[in-house]
Design a protein that fits this description.
Elements (H helix, E strand, L loop, with lengths): L1 H22 L16 H5 L30 E3 L4 E12 L2 E16 L7 H14 L3 E6 L3 H7 L19 E8 L3 E9 L4 E8 L11 H11 L1 E4 L12 H16 L5 E6 L6 H21 L7 E5 L12 H7 L1 E6 L2
Parallel strand pairs: 9-10
Antiparallel strand pairs: 1-3, 2-3, 3-7, 4-5, 5-6, 6-7, 8-11, 9-11
Helix pairs in contact: 5-6
Length: about 325
């Protein structure tokens, strides 16, 4: 009898040892054998897993277009959501708020008029849908006060629409490796009156800024009769930034290269805000450019300045990307 008990104990110890060795093959990594082999506890609890998207099972479920999720019945966006073609958002990876970059959507959610908000219904609806498209929950918990104090000043959107990630605030964080859409990160926080939702489609940064030269400005004026420039000003002011002054310097060099050249300086804005204030601001900015050129030695008789606000959009003013293109300064050749 004693021998039999000892044999059973030895077998149990051996099984436990094998189990531990299996886990040690890649400790603390989500999707040790890929997501479908992870246990429910591994998927649904705040664990110490490191996030390795290559170990997440690839989903071929059709999820539509960004931001990929429609709000459930009776809910709506509380305000205008934050939608950026490229931005940063912090997600709780291994309990550490980690910055990820890409196409970003952040919104605050509230019940429609006459409707009640159910935190349980919202969270269950989100979980059921995300699970159905192959997403995996990798965090369900709170970040510490120390962690909040460490990261929050790094977040340029902290305090903005759909913001979350405060100490003591529950966050549910899911990841999706979509066959045709790449890596997608979804996090939400719900309470008894509403919720916040963040969705980021991971993307690499593409540099679109290049140095504006006097030669390029002169060529544009000669061939097209105008040059479109993006001069940086202080926010809601006509003061030209240091980067903007570098472009103004190139305009001056282009004018000095052709002493007969005369130009009209036109300021333009997008449609955001009050139209009358935008027109005044665009006019002030055009005049600021003219004054800077005159200060740099250009004869004022060769220059005129006028602001048009949002009256002459370059393209449809229907997205943040297009709005950025409409906020511009145009140089028009007038001789």
């Amino acid at each position: 009898m004693v021998n039999k008990v000892l044999l059973l104990m030895a077998t149990a110890v051996l099984a436990l040892s094998c189990s531990q060795k299996t886990k040690e093959r890649d400790p603390n990594t989500l999707g040790e054998f890929s997501a479908e082999h992870a246990t429910d506890a591994e998927k649904n609890t705040n664990s110490n897993f490191k996030l390795d998207m290559n170990r997440i099972a690839l989903s071929d479920v059709e999820i539509g277009v960004f931001p990929f999720i429609n709000l459930s019945h009776g809910l709506e966006e509380m305000n205008k959501p934050l939608v950026r073609e490229f931005d940063v958002c912090f997600f709780p990876i291994d309990g550490i708020m980690t910055p990820l970059e890409g196409n970003l959507y952040k919104t605050s959610i509230s019940p429609k008029r006459g409707e009640d908000f159910s935190q349980h219904y919202f969270e269950k609806s989100m979980a059921k849908y995300l699970d159905s498209i192959g997403a995996v929950k990798v965090f369900d918990g709170e970040i510490s006060k120390d962690e909040y104090d460490r990261y929050h000043k790094q977040d340029p959107n902290k305090g903005g629409e759909g913001d979350m990630g405060y100490a003591g605030q529950n966050i549910k964080f899911w990841v999706l490796r979509a066959k045709n859409q790449g890596n997608i990160y979804i996090q939400y926080h719900a309470y008894n009156a509403g919720a916040s939702l963040n969705i980021l489609q991971e993307a690499d940064f593409t540099q679109t800024i290049s140095k504006v030269t006097a030669e390029e400005i002169a060529k544009e004026l000669s061939e097209n009769g105008k040059a479109i420039l993006y001069i940086n000003f202080e926010v809601d002011q006509s003061k030209i930034s240091d980067e903007g002054m570098e472009i103004v310097k190139q305009i001056g060099e282009a004018l000095n290269s052709d002493k007969s050249l005369k130009i009209a300086i036109e300021g333009h804005t997008d449609k955001t805000g009050d139209p009358s204030k935008n027109k005044i601001l665009s006019n002030d900015r055009a005049n600021a450019v003219m004054l800077a050129l005159v200060t740099d030695g250009i004869d004022q008789s060769r220059l005129t300045a006028n602001g048009f606000g949002s009256e002459k959009p370059l393209i449809a003013d229907d997205s943040e990307k297009n709005q950025a293109k409409n906020r511009r300064v145009e140089l028009i050749r007038i001789n």
